[in-house]
Amino acid sequence: MLAALGLCAHAQGAAQQELDVVTIHGGRPTSLPAQIPTTIEGITAAQIAERINAFDSEDALKYFPSLNVRKRYIGDYDHAVLASRASGTGNSARSLVYADGILLSNLLGNGASYTPRWGLVTPEEIERVDVLYGPFSASYPGNSVGAVVDFQTRMPAKLEGHVRLAGFAQRFSEYGTRDSFHGWQGSAALGDRQGALSWWLHLSRQDSDGQPVGFANRLVSAGVAGGGGVPVTGAVPGRNPANRDWLVFGANNQVHTVQDHAKVKLAYDFSPVLRASYTLGWWRNDAVRRSDSYLRDAAGNRVTGGDIDVGGRRYSLLASDFAPQRGDLEHLMHGLSLKRHARDTFDWEIAASKYDYRKDLVRVPTVVLADQDATGQGNVTDMAGSGWHTLALKGTWRPDAAHTVDFGVQRDEAGLRTRVFSTPDWLAGTDGIHVSTFNGDTRLTSVYAQDTWRIDPRWKATVGARWERWQAYGGEVSNAISALLRFGARREDGWSPKAALAWRFTDEWTVKASAGRAIRNPTAAELFQGAIVDGRIVNTDPGLRAERSWTEELTAERLTPRGSLRATLFHERTRDALYSQPLTPTVSTVQNVGRIRTTGLELSQQADDVFIQGLALQSSLTYADSRIRENAALPASVGKRQPRVPRWRATALATWRATDRLSASAGVRYSGTQYGTLDNSDPNGFTYMGVSRYFVADVRVRYRFDAHWSGALGIDNLGNEKYWAFHPYTQRTLVAELKFDL
């Protein structure tokens, strides 16, 4: 990992000579606006291979300062939310993830169910990953308020091929579960450049078993004294996040997922400065979620339904407590661009992308099943037709050596389509009785411009602004007894100014200051929600406002041929933050939190050849005081800490290149106390539905046998830490890989 983009070039001495856009050696440059004097961090494919046990693309972000991905298990496709300095792992819409300029962030909603589509990038494809911290570029919408992640994938300059086989094993112990979980991953890639045409083909399959991530439970106080049900044993006593006594009846959501991935990339150079590119990505996932009841009757039979007696109290088991689930998903991604990149007076680009839920079925029974593979009545949720598409016209004008002006017009559209039907065959039913419909669309039309001005060799400034028109329309809901009811359309306009200034006051030291406003508009899932009562839509907030954030940072950075050191003060003020809050004592819905303020300090360090030749050290430390300052919907939350934003975070990673063939790394990741609720009423983080602190260590050894073959062994969570973010994270996991490079 690099402490800044300049680190990619500092070994060449470039960063000491001038305060300019650095040249990235040994790979494709970032597509982020590196000319803006603000915080950008990066990691290359070679560094990922040496340092990180990477099974999924998001693993590349493990040791970035202030970042955390809520990845519960290998292959976690629907809950891996990215958290940043002032945004927790419940705010997926407060960051942006791109791959080769194609939007992977799922802005149909906000939260665990709307995570970036990480599966459309595999670790073997990655050429480099860069992260822009904060909303300081006018070329990105307000969802960039936390961070912008840019995956650049491989595009060959000559014939190359790669084959990789990897496996993992985890021993998991929690509540009444004691089991081992395994998986493997295989991939093959081939690419070449022949004259003006270059191409890349990548295929992969991942077959993995994750540990259970949910647990059926009841508060002890919810039991009815006097018994009356089937006497059972096996319930595990404990305390819930609020430190109330409860009983855990069993595990659920143990996921077996088989994910297939294919990608074709084509590029054609019409001239040395004009390139057309096309990307087709295909991702398929067969997911089976199973449950395991800990409860046994007097004869030792497993109990999964009906009334039960635990310690003289009666509890009723619901069909949902131990319901299995099936997922059948097939998504397509397209990207097309035409780009002039002469780096003379004027360059331009036309880019379009589309992400399509070609098939997205989730099946769950609504009756208690004696066998989880048995048929029976159930519901099917069909999200086919959901997706998003983007169109961007971009230009770069360089009127003289002092100015670089970026400008453009963008349109981003997202459409949510959800239909639920009931079927007598939950495993195979293709249609049935209508249960509900939930649809909605959003559109963001933007115009932006920003000028990066080299005032003199030591001073550089960037000033920009972004104008946006947000529209929400097509919102509609229905239930089993009501026809479609429609929401009213909405439209709002907004401005987001940006500014940054850098001063290189010595050959090694630079001071940078950045400020930017971000408008994070409601997603379709946040805006078009509610229930239907007496033919009316209720339990919704039709006046839901956009989040408006001002973010500032002040950075001092030292770059030398052997390393870097950075200290960044950051401050963010957010009005009308979007959170699910109690609307009534029994109903919660997304509402605005009046004001949240975050102030913090981020330290980042990297050094090569520390003490001995080949030893690289990198570390980061983040302090963030994030507090709710105003919230009319839940006054008890005022003065409390923002959910899932810990006060302290830290990483450290040591990598030793013992020889040209052998490397080893050891790293630690720390996160302090967190809360999952707005009013911080969940002090017990080390339990199901809690959010805990953690200290996790990882190790990896990699050996290159010859010019073609290499292998690696590693352990994630070496100390077998048990930690939670509502669901349990993985425990100690052994990983191994073997790779062939042509």
From TrEMBL:
InterPro entries named in the record: Beta-barrel_TonB, Beta-barrel_TonB_sf, Plug_dom, Plug_dom_sf, TonB-dep_rcpt-like
Domain TonB-dependent receptor plug residues, every copy: 35-148
Subcellular location: Cell outer membrane
Alphabetic keyword roster: Cell outer membrane, Ion transport, Membrane, Receptor, Signal, TonB box, Transmembrane, Transmembrane beta strand, Transport
TonB-dependent receptor-like beta-barrel domain sequence ranges: 286-718
Major subcellular location class: membrane
Topology relative to the membrane: Multi-pass membrane protein
CDD domains in the cross-refs: ligand_gated_channel
Pfam families from the UniProt entry: Plug, TonB_dep_Rec_b-barrel
Record-stated family: Belongs to the TonB-dependent receptor family.
Protein name according to UniProt: TonB-dependent receptor
Organism: Pseudoduganella umbonata
